[in-house]
Amino acid sequence: QVQLVESGGGLVQPGGSLTLSCATSGFTLSSYAMRWYRQAPGQERELVATNTPAAGSTYYADSVKDRFTISRDNAYNSVYLQMNSLKPEDTAVYYCNALGVRAGSYGREYWGQGTQVTVSS
User: Fold this and answer.
1) Which of 29, 54, 62, 105 is deepest in the core (most CB within 10 A)?
2) Confidence of residue 39 (pLDDT cuts 50, 70, 90)
3) Centroid of chain to Cα 51
4) Does 90 have pLDDT greater than 90?
């Protein structure tokens, strides 16, 4: 059974930091691009960061570039999102996503249940 379980969300003051974790099971992490999305109330879901298994290349939305860092640990089946210099506009539910990019998994997609991040003083 495939599972993606996010943790690490919470309330943080502007300028603070949080690290989100995504614990995965039921699939081979090294065959999947891992992504973090977020969705604020009344807004569409937004792609925040991507980490691909090929050479660990990454992509960031302009709104989080130089503040957020995505990483993975295939040995521990986990993906992380380090968030620094948080702003109120980063407030959203953050979702972990897996997209198959290699033979045998291509096109398969899985989602976590989300974790709330609130940036407020």
Assistant:
1) 29
2) very high
3) 9
4) yes
Q: Report the distance separating Cα 33 and Cα 105, nearest Å.
A: 11
CA dist 104 and 26 (Å) reads: 14
* Token reading at 26: 């039921």
Instruction: Give the 3-state secondary structure of the chain.
Output: CCEEEEECCEEECCCCCEEEEEEEECCCHHHEEEEEEEECCCCCCEEEEEECCCCCCEEECCCCCCCEEEEEEHHHCEEEEEECCCCHHHCEEEEEEEEECCCCCCCCEEECCCEEEEECC
Q: What percent of the chain has pLDDT over 70?
A: 99
CB-based contacts of 27: which residues, under 8 Å, 6+ apart? Answer: 2, 98, 100, 105, 108, 110
- Distance from C-alpha of 63 to C-alpha of 12, rounded to nearest angstrom: 18
Q: Could you report the per-residue pLDDT of 101-118, keeping only the tens digit for each?
A: 998 889 999 999 999 999
